[in-house]
Amino acid sequence: MPNTLTVFDPAMCCSTGICGPSVDARLVRFAADLDWLRATGVEVERFNLAQQPAAFAASAAVKQALAERGEAALPLVLAGGEVVSIGTYPSRAQLADWAGVPVAASPAKRKLPLGVVAPAGGCCSDGGTSGEPCC
């Protein structure tokens, strides 16, 4: 099973899209799912078209998908270098399956800085380890 997942996001204002006055709940869920996956030991790379266009140009699979579908191909997910998802944010179960991790895997709990409270589902972009406020 691949131990690396690579996500190619459409152009967003920040690396996760979880910013600004109107946050898309799908992006919050997906960021939490990626954090969970990292905590289980899976290497996760995430690229934003607005901030890291060179990563898109460097991947033959991404270039092909963009040529065929345009930006509708994004988000695009690679597992072990192979395209596994095009045009939608996958579920935690799908991510776990592609990474070879049981969905019930429970990563070690991270301690949050004093005064930072993680909401149910843990949508802090880094699990609360940097001291940034959780959503």
Indicate the topology.
Layout: E1 4-9, H1 25-39, E2 43-48, H2 53-58, H3 60-69, E3 76-79, E4 82-86, H4 92-99
Parallel strand pairs: 1-2
Antiparallel strand pairs: 1-3, 3-4
Helix pairs in contact: 1-4
Explained architecture:
- The chain has 135 residues and is an alpha+beta fold.
- The protein has a single domain, classed as Glutaredoxin (3-Layer(aba) Sandwich).
- The chain has 4 helices and 4 strands, in the order βαβααββα.
- The chain has helices at residues 25-39, 53-58, 60-69, 92-99; strands spanning 4-9, 43-48, 76-79, 82-86.
- It has a 4-stranded mixed sheet with strand order 2-1-3-4, with helices on both faces.
- β3 and β4 (82-86) form a beta hairpin.
- α1 (25-39) packs parallel to α4 (92-99).
- The protein starts with a strand and ends in a 36-residue tail after the last helix.
- Mean pLDDT is 79; it is low at 108-135.
Structural class: alpha+beta
CATH architecture: 3-Layer(aba) Sandwich
Instruction: Tell me, briefly, the overall form.
Output: globular
CATH superfamily: Glutaredoxin
Instruction: Tell me the helix content.
Output: 25-40%
Largest sheet, in brief, is:
4 strands, mixed
Q: What is the H/E string?
A: EHEHHEEH
What is the domain tally? Answer: 1
What's the number of helices? 4
Main sheet strand line-up: 2-1-3-4
Computed CA radius of gyration, to the nearest angstrom: 15 Å
In CATH's first tier, which class applies? Alpha Beta
